[in-house]
Design goal:
Layout: E1 20-25, E2 29-33, E3 39-40, H1 53-60, H2 74-88, E4 94-98, H3 104-111, E5 115-120, H4 123-133, E6 137-139, E7 152-158, H5 167-177, E8 178-188, H6 194-202, H7 205-210, H8 212-215, E9 224-225, H9 228-237, E10 241-247, H10 250-254, H11 262-275, E11 280-285
Parallel strand pairs: 4-5, 4-7, 5-6, 7-8
Antiparallel strand pairs: 1-2, 2-3, 3-9, 8-11, 10-11
């Protein structure tokens, strides 16, 4: 009798059949590891085929429109992340931004006095980022062989870690590329978001399908899903020491142009941090 799956949990290596549960059954099936709480397409009974969406995505978007994909919240999010980063590692530290897209973040890092280098999976977008920023951008999927040991003081994964098919290998590669006491910064959607919390109470599937951007669960390009506890476990398992973890941060992202809502958003942020609801920002040291 088969007692284990060939696709173990990438966080805790669990492979026993009775440790996996169907998490969401939409056009994409996702499964939850009951041992550590990780949710993804591929652990346990799930099937996994990493889609080669990077180049197809790049070819389907006109370069002139790429920067427009950043929401109004993005500049404020960037400034908040740089301010938090500076507390632990001020300029002129070397920063590798994995999944740099059009280079908005590495450009701002350069303006703040850091020495940035980008990695972008899609060739066309990587070329666009190099031309636009004049900064080094390496094309390809991030992996250990891409750089030498201890080349960077900081490695960032902003809205990209949930696309990584093997999160633990990614974290180990980051540790290899980081200098001693170097920092890793991960900004990633959380399963503990308002849409998924409502779904967990009602089990109404249409809620998730209607608000797919918020829930992220039925998105074919997202292969892994995190809660703060699961992400913290992954980081510590890879040898990192957690410096801080923040959730929500709605006042940072949306206080302008909705200045009148700032007091309310700060109150919402306090609740989000207390109950760990909303987007996760984790900073950890090697």
């Amino acid at each position: 009798m088969v007692t284990s799956y060939s696709n173990p949990c990438p966080i805790c290596s669990e492979e026993r059949i009775d440790r996996f549960r169907l998490f969401f059954d939409g056009s994409i099936k996702t499964f939850r590891c009951t041992t550590c709480g990780f949710v993804g397409h591929f652990p346990g009974p799930g099937t996994f085929g990493f889609p080669n969406y990077a180049d197809s995505y790049a070819s389907s978007v006109l370069p002139a429109n790429l920067d427009q994909q950043y929401t109004a919240a993005a500049p404020r999010n960037i400034e908040d992340i740089i301010a938090r980063l500076a507390k632990y590692c001020p300029p002129p530290a070397r920063v590798l931004d994995v999944g740099c897209h059009t280079g908005v973040f590495i450009k701002r890092l350069s303006e703040a006095g850091y020495v940035p280098h980008g990695v972008e999976a899609a060739d066309a977008i990587a070329r666009y980022a190099r031309d636009k920023t004049g900064l080094p951008v390496t094309s390809g999927l991030y992996e250990r062989t891409m750089f030498g040991p201890e080349e960077f003081d900081v490695i960032t994964f902003l809205n990209v870690f949930h696309h990584m098919p093997d999160p633990m290998s990614t974290l180990r590669a980051a540790s290899y590329h980081l200098r001693r006491h170097g920092l890793i910064v991960i900004d990633v959607p959380s399963l503990q978001n308002p849409v998924m919390l409502l779904y967990s109470l009602t089990h109404i599937k249409s809620i998730v399908l209607r608000f797919r951007t918020w829930s992220a669960v039925n998105n074919p390009q997202i292969v892994a899903y995190y809660r703060p506890k699961v992400l913290s476990r992954a980081l510590t398992s890879a040898g990192f020491n957690l410096c801080e973890i923040a959730t929500g941060r709605y006042s940072t992202k949306y206080s302008m142009p909705y200045a009148s809502l700032s007091p309310l958003l700060r109150w919402v942020d306090a609740l989000c941090q207390r109950f760990q609801i909303g987007t996760i920002l984790a900073i950890a040291a090697k």
